[in-house]
Structures are given as structure tokens and as C-alpha cells.
Amino acid sequence: MSKPLLSLENIYVDFERDGVISQVLENVSLSVHKGEFLSIIGHSGCGKSTLLNVVAGLVPVTLGAALLDNKEIKGPGPERAVVFQNHSLLPWMTVYENVRLAVAKLYGARENLKQLHDRTLHNLELVKMTHAKDKRPGEISGGMKQRVGIARALAMEPKVLLLDEPFGALDALTRAHLQDTVMELHERIRSTVLMITHDVDEAVLLADRVVMMTNGPKARIGEIVDVKTPRPRDRKQVLQDAQFIDCRRSIVGFLEAHDHAHPAPAEPA
Amino acid sequence: MPFEVHKMTAPQSDTPADPVADHNQILLAAAQAKQIAASRRRKLADKAGNYLMPLLTVSALLLMWEALGTAFPGGLPSPSMVLMDAQELIFNPFYDRGGVDKGLFWHVLTSLSRVGIGFGLAAVCGVLLGAFLGTVDWARKGTDPIIQVLRTVPPLAWLPISLAALREAQPSALFVIFITSIWPIVINTMVGVRNIPQDYVNVAKVLRLTPGEYFFKIMLPAATPHIFTGLRIGVGMSWLAIVASEMLLGGVGIGFFIWDQYNSSRMSDIIVALVWVGLVGFVLDRLVALVGQYVSRGTTAD
Ligand SMILES: Nc1ncnc2c1ncn2[C@@H]1O[C@H](COP(=O)(O)OP(=O)(O)OP(=O)(O)O)[C@@H](O)[C@H]1O
Ligand SMILES: [Mg+2]
């Protein structure tokens, strides 16, 4: 098999505050190949965002190595676009300007103004937000903000797309629509995607592999299941797919076993 | 129009008329009309309060002053005396007989132009310095005690120093304004820059914005509300400083005008000038506040 695009090798992540160390990730190893779609699932606060931020280059590892294309990840960069958990749009810019900022930064040197404009509009169109392009983030709903955040990340045409609960604040219909959009995009440009989600169905529907994390502190990767359901996937048909149902069952089982109310027995050191 | 009755869609002509629905329709329209009328009345009362109450207090104060002035003649002139003594000053602010014998408009204009230059320089330097100190931690730590001490020095105390250093009246006055109004701008900008949410910093990092892009696209807009708080305090202080420093420097300007009239014991003229000073200071403050409101619309998240 070819070399992985992204590999985390025995990484540990600690946060220090007032001399007290809190261990968030312990000995996490993960290889992601080009074009793969990974879902990351786990209970709240276990360290999913932290793992994603390590790949984004926003959080340094305490021990171990995070490699992209066999080079150590030293800091953030546009080839690893992030859709942040809290959307992080710049409130003083309009929806259009928020996306345009990313477009101008990445293609400004190579394309003329017309091309940049078209590219911005195209990405807003992908998430169906052209109608509100001149609104400011304060004037649109939470779900719309997330869509703009997705448009901004897609506009960067990144090698790795990092999605931190991108559909969290959306109603079921919009959510389904955006899941389809992301699936189509992934199909078409074969981007590599890491997506955090709390929704088991969403995790399985979109992913090639679902990564399940144990509870923090000292969270690790508990299990990884392969989703072999063939693509393109239809959200209604997969519900009858035996593989899909299997994956779903094992994930729900894992999450129940790691429920905070009934913590798993501590492992020997 | 702020008030409009949102009519329900009219029943379609091919459906038979429903007397109950029609009746409800009429009741609803009446209820809505009542709502609108009540809201109008509230607005009117509110407006009346906003304008009537200040008018009442001002006239009460003037009446009291008038009564006191008549009861103890020879002290402060009463409002009616001021009106008689300073007729030309009040009703013709634009006269100009050369030298310092000008209408109050020209004195205020000269003072304002000094404030414009001194405060303008303070705004630019203050924001730049504040942004620098807010970003570079060791620079902030090094200068913080100095700034905290310097910002408490009163404007007039700067005057001898700046006169000794600059030797001329005009630049000294400007320097006094500058040095008085820069501190609140520096301090507030610094606070604003230090409080930029991590989210925006992360966005800038992922996009790899250059320091210049970061300054204009993230730092300035994110710190705008704080910057304008500083500017608003600064413009008030610069107006305080100009009146004080002009008193000592002489020439055209509202500050010297007051001093000049004091020396010739024209209390009525001084009272008229004070009203101008107060009103102009108020307008300056509102102006900066309005610009701030306009510029920082949308800068607060969600
Ligand atoms: N910068 C930081 N400093 C200190 N502790 C942190 C920091 N960032 C995260 N943590 C801690 O690390 C743990 C994991 O946080 P993380 O945000 O990765 O969780 P998560 O799995 O994304 O949770 P959620 O599903 O609620 O988003 C938490 O206990 C959190 O308090
Ligand atoms: Mg998270």
C-alpha cells in the first residue's frame, strides 16, 4: 500500500496550566491515505477537537510526531483548511468578504479580479448562501454561519479538510443537504477529510473509516471500523445495507460502553 | 412607515364567504389598530419626555439664577444681564475686526483646528503604539509603569516643559493636546488588541496572513470598539487641554478669549464663552461616539 498522506505516530498532547499538567491525548497513532474520509466520534470533552487541532497545526504535540506528506507539521497552513466548531467568521466582514478573504489569499497572485469573484460566488453557491452574501455574520442564523464557514474552507481547495462538528447547529433538512454536498465534493475532488461528529448515522454515511475515541483524560483511539458500503451512497438505501447496519451497531455499542455514567475499567499503567 | 397593518390574505373569491372568519377578521383588525395606537402614544410620550424634561430643568435653573442675580446685585450677572451685555457676542459670532477682536465662532474654530491637529496626531500615534504594545508582551511590560504615571500628569503641567523644549507657543499648544489625549488611546487600543478572540487569530494563522494583512483585516477591526472608547476619552481631554493651554499662550482661541475677558472683567462675555465651550465639547464627544458606532457596527460577534 502507498505511503499515507497524514500520519500521527504515538502522539501525546498535554496542556499545562499553573504548573498542573492535564493529559488530553495519550499515545494516539493514525494513518490517513490520500482521498480518505475519516469520521471521528467520541464523548464530549474527550479530545476530538484537540486531535483535529494537532493536524491543523494549532496545537503542538508534547511527544510523538504528526506528519503530513512525510514532513513534520510545524504550524497551520491553508493546505489544511479548518471548519471550526464555532464557525469563526469575522463579524466585521460580510459573508462574501469572509470567503473572499480566503480566496484572495490563496489565488490572488494567480487570478484576476473576475476569476476571484467567480470563485467566491461559486463556493457560496455550493452551500446555497449566495442570497445572503452581503449580510454580516451577526445577521444570519447559526446554521447559515456554519455553511459560510464550510464555503470558506472549501474555497481553499485544501489537501486536507478538517471539519469540527460542521453540521452541529443545522436542522435535519439542511444537514442532509450539506452532507450530500460534502459527499459529492469528496467524490469529485477526492479530498482527504477528517470530520468530527456526534451523530452516528452521519459518521457512517460519510466516512470510509470511523475512528472512535475513548473518554478523556488520556483519551486514545479505542476502535476503528471500516465502512465498506459502496459509494456513491444514498441516505435512504444505506439504511438497508447490512454493512452499514453492522458499523452503526458497533459504534453505538462502543459509545454505550464508554458512557460517562458507566466508565470503562481503568487500564493498568 | 414603522407601523403597518399586515393584512391577512384576502379570502379567495371562489370560496363561499365564511361569516365567522369575516367577523374574526374585523375583530383582528380592530385589535391591531388598538395596538398601533397604543404604541404611537407611547412613542409620543417618550419623545415629549426626552425634550420636555431637559427644557424644564434648564428653565428652572435659569429662573433660579435670575432670582439669585437680582437678589444679590454686583456678583455674577444674571441671565438677563448677560443677554444685554453680550448681545453682539451672542447674536453675531462671525464678526471680525482684526487682531483678537473676533466673534466667538472664529475663536472656537482656531481652537478646534489645534485640537484637530493635536488629537489627530495622538489618534494615529496612539493606535499604532497601542497595537504594538498589545502585541509585544515585553514592550508592554517595560512601558506599562511609565504610561500609568504619565497619563496622570495634568495638561497644564506639560506646558512649561513643552515651551522649554519647543520654544514657540503654537507647537507647544499642539504638544500639550497631543500628550494629554494620547494615553487613553494607547491604553484602550492595547486592551482591545490583547483581547482579540483566539478564533480570529486561528483563522489568520490558517490563512497565513502577513503581518500587514493581520493588522488591517483582523487587529484593527477586532479592536475597533476599544479604540473608539479611547478616542472618545481622548477627544474630551484634548478639549480640556486646549482651553487651559490657550489661556497661558495668548492669541486667537477660545481659551485666551476667556482669559482676556477675565482681565477686562467682562463676566457676561465669559459666561457666553463657557456655553460655547460646553456645547462644542459635547458635540465633539457625540461626533466621535457616532463615528465609532458606525465603524464598529457588526464588530461584536453573534
Ligand atoms: N487550550 C487548552 N488548554 C487547556 N486545556 C484544554 C485546551 N484545549 C482543550 N483543553 C482540554 O482538553 C480536553 C479535550 O478538549 P476538546 O476540545 O479536544 O474536546 P472535544 O472532544 O472536542 O469536546 P466536544 O465534543 O465537546 O467539542 C478538555 O478537557 C479541555 O478542557
Ligand atoms: Mg470539540
From TrEMBL, chain A:
It is found in: Cell membrane. Residues 6-240 form the ABC transporter domain. It is a peripheral membrane protein. The keyword Cell membrane applies. NCBIfam families: ntrCD. Its main location: membrane. InterPro entries: AAA+_ATPase (IPR003593), ABC_transporter-like_ATP-bd (IPR003439), ABC_transporter-like_CS (IPR017871), ABC_transporter_ATP-bind (IPR050166), NO3_transporter_ATP-bd-like (IPR005890), P-loop_NTPase (IPR027417). Keywords: ATP-binding, Cell membrane, Membrane, Nucleotide-binding, Transport. Gene3D superfamilies: P-loop containing nucleotide triphosphate hydrolases. Belongs to the ABC transporter superfamily. SMART domains: AAA (SM00382). GO terms for molecular function: ATP binding. It comes from Asticcacaulis currens. This is ABC transporter ATP-binding protein. Coiled coil: none annotated. Pfam families: ABC_tran. CDD domains: ABC_NrtD_SsuB_transporters.
